[in-house]
Amino acid sequence: MILEEFVADAEQGRSVLVTGGNRGIGLAIARAFVENGDRVAITYRSGEVPEGLLGVKADVTSEAQVDAAFTAVEGAHGPVEVLVANAGMTRDTLLLRMTESDFTDVIDTNLTGAFRVIKRASKGMIRLRKGRVVLISSVTGLYGAPGQINYSASKAGLIGIARSLTRELGSRGITANVVAPGFINTDMTAELPEDTRKNYLATIPARRFAEPTEVANVVRWIASDDAAYISGAVIPVDGGLGMGH
Ligand code: NDP
Asked: Which residues are in coiled coils (predicted)?
C-alpha cells in the first residue's frame, strides 16, 4: 500500500511501534494501544511475540536491524505514527568498579538505541506531517542513583533528545515527550536486592511500586489528540519520588 492509502485508511487506527514490547512496561504499553484500536507492532530480541501484536525482531544497537524492523512494520501497518522508545537495560555497579564497556553498552542501548529508532521513524512522520515520539526515561535520569552512573546518564540524555526534537520537528505536527517511571514491578526491578527495595519503598511518598499498566496509561494519553499541545515535557510516573523534575 502506498502512503496516501494508509492515510485514507486512518479509521483502522494509527501505526504504533513499541521497542522492547515483548515484556514488562513495553508490553503493557503495546496492549494499551491495542485497547485504543491502534495497529500495534513491537520489537523483540528474544522469546515469543505476545498474542495480538505484530512482532519484528530487532536489537536497537543495530542500525540495520532497526531499519529492517521499520520496513516490515511499514509494509504491514503503514508509516509509524506513534513511536515508543522503551527498550532499555541496566548494568549497575559503583563508579570505581564500572568498566568503560559497562558505561558504553548501556548508552548504546538506552540512548543511541533511542536515537536510531527516532531517526528512522522521523522520515515517515515528516511525510505524514504528524507523529508522536515517547521516550521511556527513568526517575534516576534527573534524581540520580548510586550504582547507576551509566543508566542515569543514558536516561537524562533522552530528555535532551526530546527537547531538541521538539525544536526541530515541532512545526511538523510531531511531539516528543519523556515519561519517567519510578519503581515499576517488572523483571528489571525483580533483580534488585531486598534491602534496596525496602530503602526505596521508604522514600517513595506513595509507599509502593507501580504496575506496568500505570505507566502504559500515561504513555497512551501523551500520544493521544488530547495531548497535542504538550511537547518536550518530562512526565513523572513515580509515586512522588522525584518531585522537582
Ligand atoms: P525489562 O527488563 O522487563 O524489559 C526490557 C525490554 O527491553 C525487553 O523487551 C528487552 O528485550 C528490551 N531490550 C533490552 N535491550 C535491548 C536491545 N539492545 N535491543 C532491543 N531490545 C532490548 O524492563 P522494564 O519493562 O522494566 O523497562 C522498560 C523500560 O522502562 C526501560 O527503558 C527501563 O529502563 C525503563 N524503566 C523501568 C523502570 C522499572 O522500575 N521497571 C523504572 C524506570 C524506567 P528482551 O526481552 O529481548 O531482552
From this structure: none
**Beta strand spans in 28-153 (E):** 39-44, 54-57, 82-85, 131-136
Whole-prediction pTM value?
0.96
Q: Please work out whether the CB of residue 60 comes within 6 Å of at least one atom of ligand 1.
A: yes
Question: Per residue in 164-192, pLDDT tens?
Answer: 999 999 999 999 999 999 999 999 899 88
| Predicted complex ipTM | 0.99
CA–CA gap between residue 82 and residue 121 (Å, rounded):
9
Q: All 3 cell numbers of residue 202?
A: 521508604
Atom of ligand 1 nearest to the CA of 155: 34
Q: Which atom of ligand 1 is nearest to the CA of 25?
A: 25
* CA 61/CA 76 separation, integer angstroms: 23
Query: By three-state DSSP, how is residue 130 classified?
Result: coil
